[in-house]
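Supplementary Note 3. Input sequence used for the single-chain structure prediction.
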Amino acid sequence: MSLDRKDLEEIVNLVIGQLNEKEALYYCGEKNKYGIFCDMNEAIEKAYTAQKEFFKNYKLDNRRKIIESIREELMKNVELLARLGVEDTGMGRYEDKLKKNKLIIERTPGVEDLNSEVFTGDDGLTLIELSPYGVIGSITPSTNPSETIICNSIGMIAAGNSVVFSPHPGAKNISMKTIELINKGIEKAGGPRNLIVTVNDPSIENAQLMMKHEKIKMIVATGGPGVVKTALSQGKKAIGAGAGNPPVVVDETADIEKAAGDIIAGCSFDNNLPCIAEKEVIVVDSVADYLIFSMNKNNVYHLKDKEKIEKLAGMVIDEKGRINRKFVGKDARVILKAIEVECKSDVRAIIVETEKDHPFVVNELMMPILPIVRVKDIDEAIKLAVEVENRNRHTAIMHSKNIDNLSRFAKEIETTIFVKNAPSFAGLGFGGEGYPTFTIAGPTGEGLTSARSFARKRRCSLVESFSIK
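The predicted structure, written as discrete structure tokens, is reproduced below.
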């Protein structure tokens, strides 16, 4: 049988239509089973219904099994998440995203974080337990998209909540894939559908709709100052995980060679995307030359040409201090090439000496560009570090063997995370003790969030009974 052009066009259109329909079902609507909806109101309603069923019918042991299933599903696909994270956002390094995702999948606290309190005495027994808020609205960034969705999902589910995610539009595909995998894990463990939901069209409008919806009982915003401010202005319980500009101080007592290696490891990790990463170095002048000499042994490019430095500054920051997002999270080699500087393929960071008021110092770049500022002594170092951290109270790092200097800096800067003699990522439990998270709530005081951060305290008192003292 012969086919004319019209017949062929009809067949092609039919096939394309079927493919589009299949794709639409996959990315949008309840039929895909993976919590991705076309309408934010519908997503919230489904999450509300799922949470009611979850709290009523699923005990702590059920939650534990669901979280374990989520971890297994995510770990099977961790390489995909790392690769897609780079491809979708155009930011970061595959090998570092792999480490971040593995860390957060394996070590985010679950139901074991929900410790109860008991008071007993002559007047009986009082029990304090942690209960869910209900439906939580979570805004997530493009810098650590899968990691933030994973740690928030595990913690929020452990506490008995459902979650409506509003991902950054610049991380749409990786966010959708992460939510899909989490829902597959929930399904395999027999959990309710739509415990974790989102919309297939992330936008500011959808985020605002989500925050204002009456069935959203708590808002968790991870991102820049603007999104945190908006979340905190909704008149609801809110957790704000805001920006930082972490300084690292090096005094004359530090192990300089170790400090150099640690600083470069931290500032170059995932191309400086983590909000805890070293953003500027403040070093006592007497050891500055040795520190820079040692840094040059750690896969860096030392940019010395003043004309190139100013060209770089003008390229990545405008006159109003706004960051050029085109270079956020990009490899050092890509950034250098844009100012016509060639470097070796293994270069992980660009180091440059600057004055204390240089734009590289006072602005959070989220690029592997590390400014180094010389100061005369520890007094000037601490004063400057507190100033450039901008009172974000997020993260600070110090390399020193002087306990008094370490203690003084920690007290004066008042950051949520303070790392001593290690790369910044030790503060997230990567090479350091403690649990990880990528929702670090400095503005609202919860610190490194976990399941207990997403639960409310409830008190039950029984008078004149159950006390056997």
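The first strand starts at residue 36 and ends at 37. The chain is about 45% helix and 20% strand.
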